[in-house]
Design a protein that fits this description.
single chain, 141 residues, mainly alpha, two-stranded antiparallel ribbon, 2 strands
Length: 141
């Protein structure tokens, strides 16, 4: 049965609940992105000439843009590789399978962002519906 919103206050409450569900869904998707970075980026290459700082992994983040709109992204400003390398370069390099300048046939097959986009296309609506239901809303696909 449909819920009837009878007042501006009821609408505000629905917006608050939806916002919490969106934020929770973004956090779940962020966790999935970090797992994909582990599997599709870090696990396919063992560096011999540098020490991993995991700044790239930690740069994956989420941010609420409005009360009911969030984003999951790689924050290029969260990475500091000194003057010779930037967060923007790191994101691009990782997206083509480069690890510290090293690219192999195997690493080229592991494109973390493409895998994440596919994951989102397949799962994000279900994740949001689950989070809306956890907030007490009766929603169906």
């Amino acid at each position: 049965m449909a819920t009837v919103i009878k007042s501006p206050n009821e609408l505000k409450m629905i917006n608050v609940v939806c916002g919490k569900a969106v934020e929770n869904a973004c956090n779940r998707l962020l966790g999935s992105l970090q797992q994909i970075i582990d599997e599709e980026f870090y696990d396919v290459f063992d560096p011999e000439y540098y020490h991993r700082t995991y700044q790239f992994w930690r740069s994956a983040t989420t941010k609420m843009l409005t009360q009911n709109c969030g984003q999951i992204f790689m924050d290029k400003s969260a990475m500091n590789y000194n003057k010779f390398w930037t967060g923007e370069k790191q994101i691009y390099a990782a997206s083509i399978g480069s690890h510290g300048g090293f690219v192999t046939d195997e690493t080229k097959e592991h494109r973390f962002w493409e895998v994440f986009i596919e994951f989102c296309e397949e799962h994000c609506i279900d994740i949001l519906l689950e989070e809306l239901q956890k907030q007490g809303l009766n929603v169906k696909k």
